[in-house]
UniProtKB/TrEMBL annotation:
<dbReference type="Pfam" id="PF08530">
    <property type="entry name" value="PepX_C"/>
</dbReference>
<dbReference type="GO" id="GO:0005524">
    <property type="term" value="F:ATP binding"/>
</dbReference>
<dbReference type="Pfam" id="PF00005">
    <property type="entry name" value="ABC_tran"/>
</dbReference>
<dbReference type="GO" id="GO:0016887">
    <property type="term" value="F:ATP hydrolysis activity"/>
</dbReference>
<dbReference type="InterPro" id="IPR017871">
    <property type="entry name" value="ABC_transporter-like_CS"/>
</dbReference>
<feature type="region of interest" description="Disordered">
    <location>
        <begin position="234"/>
        <end position="274"/>
    </location>
</feature>
<dbReference type="InterPro" id="IPR008979">
    <property type="entry name" value="Galactose-bd-like_sf"/>
</dbReference>
<keyword id="KW-0813">Transport</keyword>
<dbReference type="InterPro" id="IPR029058">
    <property type="entry name" value="AB_hydrolase_fold"/>
</dbReference>
<dbReference type="InterPro" id="IPR013736">
    <property type="entry name" value="Xaa-Pro_dipept_C"/>
</dbReference>
<dbReference type="GO" id="GO:0008239">
    <property type="term" value="F:dipeptidyl-peptidase activity"/>
</dbReference>
<dbReference type="InterPro" id="IPR003593">
    <property type="entry name" value="AAA+_ATPase"/>
</dbReference>
<feature type="compositionally biased region" description="Gly residues">
    <location>
        <begin position="260"/>
        <end position="270"/>
    </location>
</feature>
<feature type="domain" description="ABC transporter">
    <location>
        <begin position="652"/>
        <end position="880"/>
    </location>
</feature>
<keyword id="KW-0378">Hydrolase</keyword>
<keyword id="KW-0472">Membrane</keyword>
<feature type="transmembrane region" description="Helical">
    <location>
        <begin position="609"/>
        <end position="632"/>
    </location>
</feature>
Length: 954
């Protein structure tokens, strides 16, 4: 069930003749305001594409061809100079990956230079992972090129007014370029790294990368992407909002091909590469990867190479104001990477601001509200520090978390928050939650197989999406659980926990995870994030082990009251390399899990709007709507306090219901009936009779013109609490296709806000009869499976009144028979059912009562037996049906109903049967049998007419 929108309330509150005018005014104002706010400031875009040759390398003398596109506002010129943006793409992408964002920046009045990084697409050269002598020097030469353009504003000779924006691979370049070239005026690095060696070789107790646990899943994708350019992770689709990594570039060849540029060999592999499996990677990078991938450990030379491509060592050289945007759903570069960058840049006195959002390499751009917030922050930052417009953005901290589902587009909704100071991963305060459990042995499987699945590149929340299908292997993990939380806790930062471990080999590789477990036992691993640990010098007995503190990856999550925390320590993980030799570790958890919390105020949705004037206009409109809604709701609440004594025990009473549309069409003119406990009432009528309109009014999906509806004596209005006593399937089921049937039921129940204990999942699933298919994704369901799941959803809370519109639609005969039994059983416990159906035989066998509607009016109501008994139809078995039909057609008031198998069904309409038989005999027609016809179908046809089409119900 859903409540009406504010617009529906607004229409309800205004007099009918003023609704159209008022609605038109609101629409025009909103359309004008939104258009004014987001319409590009320039008069258009012009582009220039070229292969630019730049010189880079350690001595700055090695030429490389870069595939570039330069975007300009059409009115930019030497007389009207504009600031510039250098827009970098993600790993595996090309300049085409950022086309849409380039065009948006041009609309904001910037010149934008995009290029395909060396080693990718049509550009030449080899991949050095943002090496300072290579990719970074390439970008410096592009700054030279921008400074020479007459349309670009400059700070001095050879110094363009420029900001650098990029995500992932492009974000790392933005940081390294700003450290190497002070001509950069501002940077916006997104979802990128601080220390590439720690990112790929993390160790969560503070160990060096040489002791880290190799992140083989992500590393394999990186080097696979470099081996076949265009097939790897694409990074940001644009510079202003993170897009799902791994999506192919929007244009450009899937492999280097003939136009890959100089310095490439067959298949795009660089000439002289250490190994053809590394494709266009430079030989030293390739060799380091192969050593790490083969052994699972990094030597110091490999760490030094990765650190040359890391901002960690040069943050103190960055003077360009920096906006760091990092994703919470990111198993490649988690929040700790941005935290380290922020602290290093701020230590040098450079303005820095941090923003976390719900997307990332595994979560894409996040919900629309989140991507809009990131876009707003980016434009605000560049407008001040590059364009020189607007007040200083400040250094406040913003973050967001998933808040639920959007009722309109059925997508996720994120709520943003703001705090004055950036607290880092430690948070403003800590909440200690005790976890308990004995010391437990866990087995390390040989060669890491089978392995637990907690994260898969591009799908960090796999565990939560599959709801326990992806998880830990029995015997390979230990569990420590808390008691149910007495109140909710908002986690924002990196939790910590103290562990002890023992190993017969003196060494252990462990994976520490923190699950959120709901009261039904469903465990969710936030964004699939784990803390890999390598411990050495371990004793053989856990009692002799020293405690170690493990810092888990930063998360943002609200753990609700009644939920428990589950600390899991596993010996394997599919995304990482583990020791090949089998052994058994023993692990114990000491004390409590320490959860960081951050206090902040919610960010209004108007913060995503680019202009404060528009925000003010929208706020004024919103205030007006709120006032109208408040007045109407107060009136409805006042009316809803009373209980009509006559209907207090009646599940449903419909009184003189009328629905007339603005064009004068009357869908329902006078509908009046009741549904009592224990009844299964069938709502019947031809197409267009008014059945669907009646149900829509009943569920609050449209407002009646006149009449009242009472549910257990309370007058029904949108948002009324009594609606919780109704379960409904009206206008077909609506499910999230990427979730399973069971997950959809759970998500629906959470959205109702009712206690989990009130849901009857076992009963509902028994009703659905889907078996193991309930764990399959909805997108793989047939129409009948969706229908059965929708009926189960309507019955979840065992509502006292169940309203179903065509419940047998899409069901096969055995399923229809089972549905018949379900509805009859459902009404035996004092509950009631109202069902609309066109299958008259099913209604006759299922329903205790029926209401027949025709042309917006009730033409019959009561027990099914009475309605059938009132039917005047008679079945005649005659020797010549054709001649008999001709005779009967001449009799006044007698009507022949559709024939069946040589028999005649006749509505005698009060004419004596003996008179009808006499006329047939006089005509020489033999009459073999005359029996009363007592089917609901005949009664229905007699009531509504054979050719009735109702009133054209909408």
């Amino acid at each position: 069930m859903r409540s009406p929108s504010p617009a529906a309330w607004f229409r309800r509150a205004l007099p009918t003749r003023r609704r159209a005018i008022a609605a038109a005014v609101v629409v025009v104002l909103l359309a004008a305001a939104v258009t004014w706010a987001v319409w590009p400031q320039g008069s258009g875009v012009r582009t220039e594409s070229a292969m630019l040759t730049v010189r880079s390398g350690p001595a700055g003398d090695q030429p490389v061809d870069l595939d570039t596109t330069f975007y300009l506002p059409t009115d930019a010129s030497s007389g009207r100079k504009v600031p510039a943006v250098l827009l970098a793409h993600g790993f595996g992408g090309t300049k085409e990956s950022v086309r849409s964002d380039a065009e948006e920046f041009v609309g904001r009045g910037y010149a934008v230079l995009t290029w395909t990084a060396r080693g990718f697409g049509r550009s030449g050269g080899e991949i050095h992972l943002d090496g300072p002598d290579y990719e970074v020097r390439d970008a410096q030469r592009l700054l030279d090129w921008l400074a020479a353009r007459p349309e670009v504003r400059t700070d001095g000779a050879g110094d363009p007014k420029v900001g650098v924006v990029g995500g992932s691979y492009g974000g790392g370049l933005a940081l390294l370029l700003a450290a190497q070239d002070r001509r950069v005026d501002a940077i916006v690095p997104m979802i990128t790294w601080n220390d590439l060696s720690r990112a790929f070789l993390p160790e969560s107790t503070g160990g060096a990368p040489t002791e880290g646990v190799f992140k083989k899943g992500w590393a394999g994708l990186f080097f696979g992407g470099g081996g076949n350019v265009g097939s790897g992770p694409a990074g940001l689709s644009g510079g202003t909002a993170a897009q799902p990594q791994g999506a192919p570039a929007s244009a450009g060849p899937p492999s280097p091909g003939p136009g890959a540029g100089p310095g490439t060999g067959p298949g795009g592999a660089p000439a002289g590469a250490a190994d053809p499996s590394c494709g266009r990677f430079a030989a030293d990078v390739c060799a380091a990867y192969l050593r790490i991938a083969t052994t699972g450990r990094a030597d110091q030379a490999a760490v030094d190479l990765l650190r040359r491509s890391s901002p960690a060592g040069v943050l103190d050289r960055i003077s360009a104001p920096t906006l760091l945007v990092q994703g919470e759903a990111d198993t490649l570069f988690p929040l700790g990477e941005a935290d380290a960058n922020a602290r290093g840049i701020a230590a040098a006195g450079t303005p820095v601001r941090v923003a976390w959002f719900t997307g990332g390499h595994d979560g894409g751009a996040g919900p629309r509200s989140d991507s809009d917030r990131v876009k707003f922050l980016t434009v605000q930052w560049l407008d001040h520090y590059v364009k020189g417009e607007g007040e200083a953005p400040g250094d406040d901290f913003t973050w967001s978390r998933i808040a639920g589902f959007d009722a309109l587009d059925r997508g996720l909704v994120a709520t943003g928050f703001r705090a004055t100071d950036y607290p880092g991963l430690a948070g403003d305060a800590r909440r200690e939650v005790a976890v308990a459990g004995p010391a437990q042995p866990i087995a390390n499987p040989p060669n890491g197989s089978p392995a637990a699945i907690s994260s898969v590149p591009f799908a960090g929340g796999l565990a939560s999406l599959l709801d326990g299908v992806a998880g830990d292997v029995p015997g390979q993990h230990a569990r420590f659980e808390s008691a149910p939380l007495t109140d909710a806790v908002d986690v924002a930062g990196a939790p910590t926990v103290t562990l002890r471990a023992a190993s017969p080999t003196g060494e252990a590789v462990l994976f520490v995870k923190l699950y959120d477990v709901d009261p039904e036992g469903a465990a969710t691993l936030p964004n699939g994030l784990v803390a890999p640990v390598r411990l050495t010098g371990l004793p053989q007995r856990v009692q002799d082990a020293r405690p170690v503190t493990v810092t888990l990856p930063g998360i943002v999550r609200r753990v609700e009251a009644g939920h428990r925390l589950r600390l899991v320590v596993a010996s394997s993980d599919q995304a990482y390399t583990t020791p090949a030799q089998p052994t058994v570790y023993t692990v114990a958890a000491d004390g409590a899990v320490s959860l960081p919390t951050v206090g902040g105020e919610p960010i209004p949705t108007t913060a995503t709007i680019w202009r404060w004037v528009l925000a003010g206009l929208l706020a004024a409109i919103a205030i007006g709507l709120v006032v109208v809604v408040a007045v109407v709701r107060r009136r409805h609440r006042r009316q809803d306090r009373s209980v009509h004594p006559e209907y207090a025990g009646t599940p449903l009473a419909v009184r003189r219901l009328r629905k007339e549309y603005a064009d004068g069409f009357v869908a329902v003119s006078n509908v009046d009936f009741e549904v009592h406990p224990g009844q299964v009432v069938g709502l019947l009528g031809p197409n267009g009779a008014g059945k669907t309109t009646t149900l829509r009014v009943l569920m609050g999906l449209t407002q009646p013109t006149a009449g009242e509806i009472y549910v257990f004596g309370r007058r029904l209005v949108p948002g009324s609490p009594v609606l919780s006593r109704i379960g409904a399937l009206v206008e077909g089921p609506g499910f999230l296709p990427h979730l399973s049937g069971l997950e959809n039921l759970r998500a629906y129940w959470r959205a109702t806000g009712r206690p989990a204990a009130d849901a009857h999942f076992d009963t509902a699933l028994e009703i659905a009869g889907l078996g193991d298919s309930v764990h399959r994704k909805i997108k793989n369901y047939s129409h009948g499976m969706r229908q059965r799941l929708a009926i189960a959803q309507a019955m979840l809370g065992l509502p006292e009144l169940l309203v179903l519109d065509e419940p047998t639609d899409g069901l096969d005969p055995p399923q229809i028979a089972e549905m018949r039994r379900v509805l009859q059983r459902y009404a035996t416990d004092g509950r009631a059912v109202l069902v609309s159906s066109h299958l008259l035989a099913e209604v006759e066998q299922t329903c205790t009562h029926a209401v027949v509607v025709n042309k917006g009016r009730i033409v019959a109501s009561g027990p099914v037996e009475e309605i059938v008994g009132e039917s005047p139809s008679v079945l005649f078995d005659v020797t010549d049906p054709v001649a008999a039909r001709a005779v009967l057609d001449r009799l006044h008031g007698v009507r022949v109903l559709p024939e069946s198998d040589g028999q005649l069904v006749v509505d005698t309409n009060g004419t004596a049967r003996s008179d009808v038989v006499a006329e047939l005999v006089r005509a020489g027609i033999g009459v073999d049998r005359v029996v009363p016809r007592r089917r609901l179908e005949d009664a229905f046809l007699a009531l509504v007419g054979e050719n009735s089409r109702g009133s054209g119900d909408r």
